[in-house]
């Protein structure tokens, strides 16, 4: 009898439970924002965005590239991935009204103009991928308000001005891609205080300064594995203090105006695997310790004034590291 009674109550409650799921609607704020974005995008996106509710409505699925989750009585948009669909025009400011976003991926489009300062509203954002666009102007300092950000991809754009020191306010940042832009000035040494930063790529810009300035803060870059400074206008030598970056695996200094000798201490960085010194003004000899390093696979030296008898390590080829290796 007790079992029949409990079954009876479950049967009675089932319609209400199902009704509650059906009535879980998308937050109006997010519906409005996505429809504003829809109105501003090209047909390649719009044709796949059917219906008025981006999280799906009845028999209609969620919009392509839109991921939602339920919070309380509502559904909210948590991820927006609209890439490689030739979006033309300015950065869609309505995106910054999606306050629950954790991932925003608009890479490989034709977005122009600046990143709006309202980007700082996306407090829950973890991954921001805007690479391979035509974005311009300076990076807004408000980007330093994205305290949960772990991955920042801004490479292959037309950003200019100095790299904002506000990036040092991102305690969770692990991967920072700024290469192939038009940045000028010096890299802010405050970036060295980022305890979780593993990958820093500022190659192919118009940056100046020295490595000594970059690593002047004691205990800087404790987790850094890959440092790309290539194709800029860095001067000075390689300071012996660089050996304090004990997790360093890739050091890419090619095509700068650096000079001096190569310090022996750098050969004692335990996991150093790739060392690119080519096309600078280095001189002298390379210490024997580099040739005995257990992990050093490649060392490029051409385009310098080393003494005769100094040899490279490995076969010269362009280093290509897939972005997917750094996603998580």
What can you tell me about this protein's structure?
A hairpin with a 2-residue loop joins strand 2 and strand 3. The chain is built from 5 helices and 22 strands. The strands form 3 sheets. Strands 1, 2, 3, 5, 7, 9, 11, 13, 15, 17, 19 and 21 form a 12-stranded mixed beta sheet that branches. It has a 7-stranded parallel beta sheet with strand order 4-6-8-10-12-14-16. A 3-stranded parallel beta sheet has the order 18-20-22, with no helix packed on it. The radius of gyration is 25 Å and the shape is elongated. It has 328 residues and is an alpha/beta fold.
Overall strand count: 22
Please tally the helical runs, counting DSSP H or I stretches of 4 or more residues. 5
Q: Could you state the order of secondary-structure elements as H and E?
A: HEHHEEEEEEEEEEEEEHEEEEEEHEE
In percent, how much strand structure appears in the residues?
15-25%
Oligomerization state of this entry?
Answer: single chain
Distance between the termini: 54 Å
| Net shape | elongated
Radius of gyration, in Å, reads 25 Å
pLDDT averaged residue by residue: 90
């Amino acid at each position: 009898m007790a079992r029949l009674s409990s079954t009876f109550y479950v049967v009675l409650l089932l319609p209400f439970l199902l009704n509650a799921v059906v009535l879980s609607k998308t937050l109006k704020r997010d519906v409005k924002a996505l429809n504003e974005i829809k109105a501003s995008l090209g047909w390649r996106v719009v044709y796949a965005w059917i219906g008025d509710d981006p999280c799906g409505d009845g028999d209609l699925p969620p919009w392509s590239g839109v991921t939602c989750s339920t919070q309380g009585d509502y559904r909210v948009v948590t991820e927006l991935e609209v890439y490689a669909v030739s979006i033309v025009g300015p950065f869609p400011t309505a995106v910054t009204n999606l306050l629950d976003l954790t991932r925003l991926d608009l890479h490989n489009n034709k977005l122009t103009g600046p990143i709006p300062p309202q980007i700082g509203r996306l407090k829950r954002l973890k991954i921001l991928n805007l690479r391979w666009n035509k974005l311009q102007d300076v990076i807004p300092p408000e980007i330093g308000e994205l305290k949960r950000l772990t991955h920042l991809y801004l490479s292959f754009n037309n950003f200019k001005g100095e790299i904002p020191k506000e990036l040092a306010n991102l305690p969770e940042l692990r991967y920072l891609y700024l290469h192939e832009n038009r940045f000028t000035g010096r890299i802010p040494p405050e970036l060295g205080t980022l305890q979780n930063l593993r990958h820093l790529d500022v190659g192919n810009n118009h940056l100046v300064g020295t490595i000594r300035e970059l690593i002047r803060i004691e205990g800087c870059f404790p987790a850094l594995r890959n440092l790309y400074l290539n194709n800029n206008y860095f001067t000075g030598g390689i300071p012996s203090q660089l050996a304090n970056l004990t997790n360093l695996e890739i050091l890419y200094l090619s095509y700068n105006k650096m000079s001096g000798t190569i310090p022996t201490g750098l050969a004692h960085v335990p996991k150093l695997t790739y060392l690119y010194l080519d096309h600078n003004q280095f001189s002298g000899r390379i210490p024997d310790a580099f040739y005995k390093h257990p992990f050093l696979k490649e060392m490029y030296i051409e385009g310098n004034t080393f003494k005769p008898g100094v040899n490279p390590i490995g076969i010269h080829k362009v280093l290509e590291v897939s972005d997917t290796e750094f996603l998580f």
